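Hello Y.,

Per our agreement to keep a running log of every chain we model this quarter, I'm adding this entry. I've kept the format consistent with earlier entries: sequence first, then predicted structure.
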Amino acid sequence: MNAIARQEPFDLNDPALRARAVAAARGDAPFDMLITGGRLLDTVTGLIREADIGLVGALIASVHARASRMDAVEIIDATGGILTPGLIDTHMHVESSMVTPAEYASAVLPRGVTTVVWDPHEFGNVHGLDGVRWAIEAAHALPLRMILLAPSCVPSAPGLELAGADFDAAVVAEMLRSPAVGGVAEVMNMRGVIDGDPRMSAIVNSGLASGKLVCGHARGLTDADLNAFMAAGVTSDHELTSGADLSAKLSAGLTIELRGSHDHLLQEFVEVLNGLGHLPPTITLCTDDVFPDELYQSGGLDDVARRLVRYGMKPEWALRAATFNAAERLKRSDLGLVASGRRADLVLFEDLTEFRARLVISDGRVVARNGSMEATVQPLDTAPLIKSVKLPLLTDDDFRIPAKGKRARVATIDRPRFTQWGEAETDIRDGFVVPPVGGAMIAVAHRHGKAGGTPRNGFLSGWGEWRGAFCTTVSHDSHNLTVFGGNAADMALAANAVITAGGGMAVAKDGQIEAILPLPLSGLVTDASLKDTASAFADIRKAMGKIVDWKPPYRVFKACFGATLACNAGPHQTDRGIADVVTGKVLEDPVLEIF
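Predicted structure for the entry above:
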């Protein structure tokens, strides 16, 4: 791939830079910057001690006794604060926050996050290689270090869904040749890897041949399946489902990307780790997906650390996982530790409870103070991302299932998140199948222009009774137009509002649009500010509360965005029909029998 890339970590090995740092460390030359009066958290020992830190360019030149040196071009008073390495998010998707990379960087850098590992498979699913190239260029211009990964599963379940692109092993190998790409992103097609499917085997092998990371998505895998997945070369997982699952995967030897996007599991995870009496070196932290209102109100990886501490984890452990352990996982010996010779990525926290960052330094430069950006954030032209929703306006009948007869036996998709097959009997009225009592409808329309856009309809059970409809083009992972609802009229209304907006989300009820969030860039993100995007997304959440009753932890708003994730076990609605990755079959029509 022709793409601009940071020349890290080799930039620190410039002989002139090292010579200047050595001279400053000896005391024969002044530091460029001297941080005095603070306390330092050692992420190796977990101890906190008084220390001053001298920087030369992007290098830490010296960590020395307090007040023993005062010769520097710039002196920063860190009195009362605690210095740590910059936080490293080991697995995330910018697109989940629905803002541009520039806006995302402006949100997390002031909170102490200096490095993120970004899997841009959302852009890849919509735009193909051009989407990944755009992501690389967008990341290069930012003060936030973004290590990109090559999307491994575009689409996530070949043959069961159709995305906007198709990445085979040759495409993945091309991405891996870029120095900006740090490895293979989460391998979600678990069955393909376990069963030795030639396509997935070749993709994983291209990652192994590159010598870069091969990251995983191992939800629900145990015993022989987990062993087979790891034997193929996959080395990490963030899809934990319980404390027992965490224990098993730690014992198996996977690197764990402990994610903050499933808060209901975090306390259980903390209890497991506290029970060990030590923090395994294979525990890292990640956000995975952060919605815009959550990012605006609470932050990114800093919020994950804050919640873990609230649930009983030692602050030193949370920070070690988010710094030193993460750097070890990424094979980045320049990151994760405040020590002479390392990269000058530093955060000055007010305390180790709320993790409020007073000062953030990246590559030896102050990038944020007191929650505000000081570094320049350069956005990239977003014109290549527009006009990605290639669909005509839809009609009410597009969200009905025609049938002749009086009664029908239909297949249903039971339970949010952990789906299973079900059946129900229902009426046929006026030539259409009536949704089963107590159920809801789901429809998915291919929106990338690779096939016809007529919606495929299915029935949901366990999702409650819907008093309206919700449409979204944020629908993992192929991001086809997905509509949930209790009646065809509101489903068509919500769908057409999103199509007209060029992508996004809309809620309809009683023939009216209750809320809309336009996402005209890839149907995933917007050029608007994080503040405005968070507000619009909060309006969507509020409107959703009027049309469906949630029942945590699984029947929640977030479940709508993963309802089409066909790589996960169980039936899932896609643009091809109801797909089941275990059997490899697609049921184009949910009607099983007519009476």
